[in-house]
Design brief:
The protein has about 300 residues and is an alpha+beta fold. It has helices spanning about 20-25, 80-85, 140-145, 155-160, 160-165, 210-220, 240-255, 285-290, and strands spanning about 5, 10-15, 35-40, 55, 60, 65-70, 75, 90-95, 100-105, 110, 130, 135, 180-185, 200-205, 205-210, 225-230, 235-240. GO terms for molecular function: serine-type endopeptidase activity.
Length: about 300
């Protein structure tokens, strides 16, 4: 079974400036690249630290422009050595940390994308229906299904809402984290006036969402009279709890849907996921985070 391409677990920049090399205590004759960020969910996190200088990979020296020798008179980006390996193979790095050389190693893993990339590999067709509101996790296969008709990749991306498009370049900061989308609204009198589609849902009754399964748990265990769904940009959907539970079967029957959730949403909470870490939801801080809450600010190699 295909398991993906190994990710280094860190992001680097070139080190061609003499002043920067001196600041990092690089000795004369040494070369390498500067680590500017590590993926907190990767095996590299802890072994490799921000401001480390990577001098070589598996014994192959790295030039200050981030390249390694490939063949005579040919050079490639040093990450090709990593991506040529298999998942769970070890990588060995020589580092310079505060002027001292050290060696580290760790098993390579595929990048745990915030937005899953491959259908049936890291993307599963999950859904939840609450009062006619259809929720699903954001994934590349989902975007391909919704926006993939006609034209090239560029024209399709132009149709994707900006907040959704922005999430494609974000990183996970917690295990199991997802971007939850309100996909569409199945019309019914209890959701009259709400016409949103393909918009991130960030909170439920004041709790920041960790994942779709987190939303399932919050909805199922809600004992409040109203269900409040906080959408990207501070928008809010409010439904009466009693009306939602009463109208649920009718909405499903009208739309010929057999269940209000996908089978995977019936599974228990994964033990390695900390839903409480998502915290409370505040519209001001959420907007400051770019409208998607506690998500890493830029993509890492992988």
């Amino acid at each position: 079974m295909y398991r993906g391409v190994p990710s280094p677990g860190f992001l680097t920049q070139d080190l061609e400036n003499p002043a920067q090399r001196a600041y990092l205590k690089m000795h004369e004759g040494t070369s390498g690249v500067l680590v500017v960020k590590t993926d907190p969910l990767s095996a590299a996190h802890g072994a490799v630290q921000k401001d480390d200088v990577i001098l070589d990979v598996d014994g192959v020296p790295i030039a200050d422009d981030g390249t390694v020798e490939f063949r005579e008179d040919e050079r490639l980006e040093f990450t090709y050595i990593i991506r040529a390996k298999h998942i769970d193979e070890h990588i060995h790095l020589k580092l310079l940390r505060d002027g001292q050389e050290l060696c580290v190693g760790y098993p390579l893993k595929a990048k745990d994308h915030l937005v899953p990339v491959l259908d049936a590999v890291d993307a599963v067709p999950s859904y939840l229906i609450v009062g006619g509101l259809v929720f699903a996790p954001l994934s590349s296969p989902f975007l391909e299904m919704v926006f993939g008709g006609g034209g090239g990749r560029r024209s399709r991306r132009a149709d994707i809402p900006v907040p959704v498009l922005a999430a494609l370049n974000q990183n996970k900061v917690r295990k199991g984290q997802q971007v939850v989308l309100l996909v569409q609204v199945l019309a019914h009198e209890i959701n009259h006036g709400y016409r949103y589609s393909v918009v991130p849902c960030e909170s439920f009754n004041g709790r920041r969402l960790h994942s779709l399964r987190h939303l399932v748990d919050l909805v199922d265990n809600c004992d409040q009279p109203f269900l409040n769904f906080g959408l990207e940009g501070g928008r809010l959907i409010t439904l009466r709890t009693a009306e939602v539970r009463g109208a649920g079967p009718q909405i499903l029957a009208t739309n010929a849907i057999s269940s209000d959730r996908s089978p995977d949403m019936l599974l228990p909470k994964p033990e390695d996921e900390d839903w409480d870490a998502a915290g409370e939801w505040d519209v001001v801080s959420a907007q400051a985070d770019g409208g998607l809450g506690a998500i890493g600010d830029s993509d890492l190699d992988g």
